[in-house]
Specification:
188 residues; mainly alpha; two-stranded antiparallel ribbon; 6 helices; 2 strands
């Protein structure tokens, strides 16, 4: 939406009402959705709502994965893991905890900054945390696939399965959407 006053067309800075929102306006300018008739504030609210809604799906899955991984040391077979398998288990457990923290971080950001007029900062950094969380989730899940295949078959098949899982996540979560992304939009 372009709003014209006596002083000329408004920019995204004009829609920002607080100093922090005005500071983020140049970064967010390229994030607007073509064809929407909304103010900067409305767009920020919508972007945050959409992001938090998307994270609800991911949060459940990553929490279940972390809970599952936390129970494994108490199983009977855990004592028979070799040194490499124990290292892989600890790596995927740490990755799962990191993914959980990163995916839940936007909710914590929102709670801490509630009514502090930091919506622009919140949208940009919640997006960064969500992306990092998805990356950790892809790595962790691929590591779990590697570990399970290593336990059930052998190490060669474990590498094949782990790399196949990582390739799948890379293709589906990164490459496929980027093929569709418009080239002119700048990303924070």
């Amino acid at each position: 939406m372009i709003w014209v006053s006596k002083s000329g067309p408004a920019t995204s800075e004009a829609y920002a009402t607080s100093a922090p929102e005005r500071a983020w306006a140049p970064i967010l300018r390229g994030m607007d959705d073509a064809g929407r008739d909304e103010t900067e504030r409305e767009r920020l609210n919508r972007n945050l709502d959409e992001l938090l809604q998307e994270l609800r799906v991911t949060q459940t899955g990553v929490q279940i994965l972390t809970g599952f991984l936390l129970t494994l040391p108490f199983s009977q077979r855990f004592g028979s893991l070799d040194h490499v398998q124990r290292g892989a288990y600890l790596a995927v457990l740490c990755g799962s905890v990191l993914a959980t923290g990163l995916i839940i971080a936007p909710v914590a950001f929102h709670r801490v900054l509630f009514q502090h007029h930091e919506r622009a900062w919140l949208v940009v950094n919640a997006n960064r945390a969500a992306r990092a969380g998805l990356l950790m989730l892809a790595l962790t899940t691929s590591g779990v696939v590697w570990l399970v295949f290593d336990l059930v078959t052998d190490r060669t098949w474990a590498y094949v399965a782990g790399l196949a899982a990582l390739g799948f996540f890379t293709a589906l979560w990164a490459a496929y959407p980027l093929l569709r992304a418009p080239r002119s939009v700048s990303r924070p």
